[in-house]
Structure prediction request, 199 residues.
Amino acid sequence: MKQSTKHNTGNTGSMRARSSGTAASPSWRRSIALALGVFFALAVLPAAPAAADNGSAPRAARPAVAPLSERGSDLSTADVLAQAGCLFISDGDFVHKTGNDATGHGYWGNINCPAGTRAKVTIWLEEYYDDGSWRVKGEGEKSPVYAGGGSANRANARATCQGTAQVSWRSRIDVDLIGQVDSSEQAVTETRNLACVVN
Prediction:
């Protein structure tokens, strides 16, 4: 909970028949006879078989590299939170690989909150799919967390890779100060492409 400063005419044609008042010429009759002959010849041809319906369902969305429009900027460093004169920042590092896992950390920075203020920090790892969605593949939470980051003061999230294709990842971080009211904005880190697929 926190309040943030950031955060489908077509042309139509007509055709007219023109009569001359004279009898149709033999060449005109031959044209009609030829046209009728072609028509009846085509009429006795066997019809082409209809395409078989294989009953296949639409392809499911898959992990993918996000387009530039989805990359965004690192909102975490701009996510300055204010509450009754107490300012703090939700923050986190970029999603990265550690061994065979995608990992990320969430933490917060104190600007002018009272000394000793603590928070509950939650982080979600999100993988991009080619239907335009971001899907949570890992989550972590830690409480209480003092400001400043570091191994002792951060929440960690991890997702084990199941493939090595390049796909896009980001993290989302929520900081709730303990004993204080703040709003619901969340920090989002800049997209990073990793050789890590989690289906």
Remarks:
- Confidence is low (pLDDT under 50) at residues 1-53, 76-80.
- The CA atoms of residues 127 and 169 lie 5 Å apart.
- Helices lie at 26-43, 68-71.
- Strands lie at 80-83, 86-92, 96-98, 101-110, 118-128, 134-146, 155-160, 163-177, 187-188, 192-197.
